[in-house]
Amino acid sequence: MDQQGHGQAPAVGTVSGAGQVPYGSAYQPNQSFWQNQYQDIEKVTDFKNHSLPLARIKKIMKADEDVRMISAEAPVVFARACEMFILELSLRSWNHTEENKRRTLQKNDIAAAITRTDIFDFLVDIVPREDLKDDVLATLPRGTGMPVAGPADALPYYYMPPAQNPAQAGPPGVMMGNPNAYAAQSQPYMGQPMWPQQPPQRQQSSSDA
């Protein structure tokens, strides 16, 4: 209890003694996290040494054709912003790790944190969920890999010789499938119209009406 006699609510993002994560911890970082970040920013005096290389950040910024000049302070701000981004995403991912009673942060934990957070929607396509891929691979027999194309690629391609009667068939080309099936046909296949044609007399009578 505090000095006024009110019970203090458990901090968001902390794990209770029973091993359960309080409600909202997986969706919202601990409030003390942002307070510590704010205090660290105020205490920063060294602007030359950073965890992330400023040259790499500046190169990424110049990837935009509209960016002409970059001041010396801009990469420093981006470096600090990247550190806070990594820390926040790691905290949200670690909450998912504790929910699954694990002690190792995995890639699917990061994917779950991205899925649960609206501001990380732009990372959904960059970090796919590995559990879906594992389920697909588990259904395949051993020794076979993931198919990279549809069943049409399994059919061989061969050269179709020209027909004996050029008036009935088109020019030669490359065909797909079993060549024996085409060789068994004595006459070339002629396509049939989808809708039956009406007799000329019926068309004339309808036009007169």
UniProtKB/TrEMBL annotation:
Any one of the GO CC terms: nucleus
Map out region (Disordered) in residue numbers: 185-209
The regions listed as transmembrane in this protein's record are none
Q: Where in the cell is it found?
A: Nucleus
Tell me where it mainly resides: nucleus
Q: Which PANTHER family match?
A: HISTONE-LIKE TRANSCRIPTION FACTOR CCAAT-RELATED, NUCLEAR TRANSCRIPTION FACTOR Y SUBUNIT C-3-RELATED
Q: What is this protein called?
A: Core Histone H2A/H2B/H3 domain-containing protein
Q: Which organism encodes this protein?
A: Chenopodium quinoa (Quinoa)
